[in-house]
Amino acid sequence: MAAWDLSVTVEDLGSDAPPVTISVASDLHVGGVILKLVEKTQIKRDWSDHALWWEQKQRWLLRAAWSLDKYGVQADARLVFMPQHKPLRLGLPNGLTLRLRACFSSPVFQTVMGVCRMLSESLPFYFFISLLLVSLFVCFFISLNSSLFPLILSH
What we know:
- This protein is an alpha+beta fold.
- The chain folds into 2 domains: about 5-85, Ubiquitin-like (UB roll), CATH 3.10.20; about 85-150, Roll (Ubiquitin-like (UB roll)).
- Helix content is about 30%, strand content about 25%.
- It is built from 4 helices and 7 strands.
- The chain has helices at about 30-40, 70, 110-120, 125-145, and strands spanning about 5-10, 20-25, 50-55, 60, 80-85, 85-90, 95-105.
- A 5-stranded mixed sheet has the order 2-1-5-3-4, covered by helices on one side. It has a two-stranded antiparallel ribbon with strand order 6-7.
- Strand 3 (about 50-55) and strand 4 form a beta hairpin.
- The longest helix has 18 residues, at about 125-145.
- The chain is elongated, with a radius of gyration of 18 Å.
- About 15% of the residues are buried.
- Mean pLDDT is about 80; it is low at about 140-155.
- InterPro entries: Kindlin/fermitin, Kindlin_2_N.
- One of its GO terms (molecular function) is integrin binding.
- It holds the Pfam family Kindlin_2_N.
- This is Fermitin family homolog 3-like.
- Keywords: Membrane, Transmembrane, Transmembrane helix.
């Protein structure tokens, strides 16, 4: 089993902070990587909403029991440790801007459906906009025919 140093950017430390370097082995599971990161940052807070984002592969490493080897993570991987839920500003046709919290680790369609559900419950007038959002997403997704990173929704 190979061992190496893995550099992980911790978003909560700020954009100017250098990446946190931890020593890992290929059989270490993702949960172990997160535990090492939390211990190394020495910040006492609730990290339960955080997960690892793999920049090069454009995917979340959400299965804590999977090893780095199973994901294919190697020493050159650029990982970011960041919250899965982030603020989202949604502009409505009447000029009103809603601030929501969206799950950026979920598939885009699931996130859009969650926003639509919230709109139809709290602002029934905008239910038709919800339907439009879903329709636009489906057309957009079919035209791309690829997996999408949830940050298409601006945050």
